[in-house]
Backbone:
């Protein structure tokens, strides 16, 4: 009889211990789930705050004010063209930009003019436009039009792309590396050629499509005229995704 009572007591104690252990395990799991939820919530809040900050930065500047912070410098080449170097000195991306260069004679009469456009110009970035130029002119004037918020789904990844050129016969060898983690849908570059530090030729803009994340591609920029040059510079005008599925 005593043995039976002892067995019952032992079984009761073991059952109680099992229940306690199960409750402790549930408590730990709930704690981990709560911790993971807090971490995920923190990441979502940080992401939302970053997006909000960027949006607030854009909404705080008007197109007219952004236009004042665009600098354009024009350098003429030897073959009836010029390069317009356009720098965005704003602290936000300029979604749309149009530059116009007007050429005048000594009597201040317009001889000719040419325009070009860029989009998603990053803060501090410089892009280049090839401008058709009369053989002779007295002076020129530049003007720009900008829109700060015009392409909400576009994104420029130029700051995550390495690009370089080296002069070869009849052009330049161009190497482009996409260091971002997305496929870039359209890359545009322009090559400028110099002789003794004098600009002699500006290529037409070249497009490279669908460059995979981490990929390196090589291109040739060709010159179809007898121009002597000893070095080249390259400008990355854009490296865009357009909000499509990657």
Residues:
């Amino acid at each position: 009889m005593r043995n039976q009572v002892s067995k019952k007591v032992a079984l009761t104690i073991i059952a109680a211990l099992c229940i306690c252990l199960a409750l402790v395990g549930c408590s730990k799991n709930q704690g981990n789930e709560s911790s993971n939820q807090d971490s995920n919530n923190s990441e979502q809040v940080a992401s939302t705050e970053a997006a909000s900050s960027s949006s607030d930065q854009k909404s705080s500047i008007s197109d007219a004010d952004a236009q004042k912070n665009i600098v354009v410098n024009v350098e003429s080449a030897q073959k009836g063209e010029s390069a317009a170097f356009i720098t965005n000195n704003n602290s936000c991306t300029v979604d749309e930009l149009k530059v116009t260069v007007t050429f005048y004679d000594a009597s201040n009469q317009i001889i000719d003019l040419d325009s070009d456009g860029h989009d998603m110009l990053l803060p501090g970035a410089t892009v280049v436009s090839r401008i058709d130029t009369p053989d002779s002119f007295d002076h020129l004037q530049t003007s720009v039009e900008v829109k700060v918020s015009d392409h909400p789904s576009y994104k420029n990844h130029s700051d995550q792309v390495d690009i370089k050129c080296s002069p070869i016969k009849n052009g330049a060898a161009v190497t482009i590396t996409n260091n971002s983690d997305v496929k870039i849908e359209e890359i545009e570059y322009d090559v400028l050629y110099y002789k003794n530090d004098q600009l002699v030729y500006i290529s037409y803009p070249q497009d490279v499509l669908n460059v995979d994340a981490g990929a390196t591609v090589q291109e040739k920029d060709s010159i179809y005229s007898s121009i002597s040059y000893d070095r080249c510079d390259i400008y990355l005008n854009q490296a865009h995704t357009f909000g499509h599925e990657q």
Observations:
- The longest strand covers residues 110-121.
